[in-house]
Amino acid sequence: MSKLSRELREQGQDIINLSIGEPDFDTPDHIKLAAIAAIEENYTHYPPVAGYPELRRAIVEKFKNDNGLTYKTSQVMVSTGAKQSLMNVIFCTLQEDDEIIVPQPCWVSYPEMIKLSGAKINYIKAGIDNGFKISAQQLEAAITSKTRAFIYSSPNNPTGSFYSYEELAELAKVFERHPDILIISDEIYEHINFTGKHASFAQFPELYDQVVVVNGVSKAFAMTGWRIGYMAGPEWLAQACEKLQGQFTSGACSISQRAALSALTSSLAPTKEMCKTFQKRRDLVIRLFNEIEGFRFHAPEGAFYLFPDISAFFGKSFEGELIKNDEDFCMFILKQAKVTLVAGGGFGDADCVRISFAASSDQLEKAAGRIKEAIKLLK
To answer: Which domains does the chain have, with CATH numbers?
Structure first.
């Protein structure tokens, strides 16, 4: 949809893009200056595959200060974005006939990464009435003798749902009974949450050795284009990921690593201001879409997405075009409202659509107004 949005804009159409999955902020100046300094200081040679030692030490300190977690640098691995970190972990731990549990809705890349490993996916449906979060009972029921891993994100893309420490504690009791299951915790939206303190499975001492935490600088520091992510977990897994990455890409971009070092060792003030802005937009979007009959949603607790159920519009039509599913709805909104959304089917819930509020308040108000008028056309 982002690609289609760009194409229509190039044709001169006034398109409001609410399909984007990145902050609409620029990278803070002090981080950009660190990258410029790195070029001038000739950080232009191959970096270590696992990342510069000083960056890995900064990641260790970040986990200690932000999350109360203790890691050694030998447990940390830097990659070309959190996506590569996830891919490394999946490739190093899963093979054919293994099973991995994936709560849905989930980020669209999880299933595709897993397919490449040859493993089988066991989905758990997390519905809107439960805040898009799974229960301990659902988790226990999904585990089989072939279950090797579990992957989830909190805050979640696309739903914005957020697991509190207490909610994770209930799930943790299940994992304690299954110590051979690796928990892959995608925490890329950690700092964009509207509920308070972030929680991680790695904070439970009984689970520490079976958790790998994946994070990065893309969302928290508006650095999506810099492509720096990292993982921390069991030392054997970090070493395996280093070997694998050494054959795929070697070390992540040297200049980006120096920029990431500045991000992780500087004040979080810009990040906190960005989060405040997203929370204001979240509140605005909730108010705006509450005014549109037919939209049903759970208020997101983090990230920058609203994931409303729009199934009330299935079976309705305009000028002979019937809305049968989420994709039809998105195309209708694009044609009639000039707003791009993302169909929920790719995330595992075809009754929903993803609306990004990584856009200005003016754009969000205009988009909601257009959608409201378009909905009136449906009969």
So the answer is: 2-21+270-375 (3.90.1150.10), 29-265 (3.40.640.10)
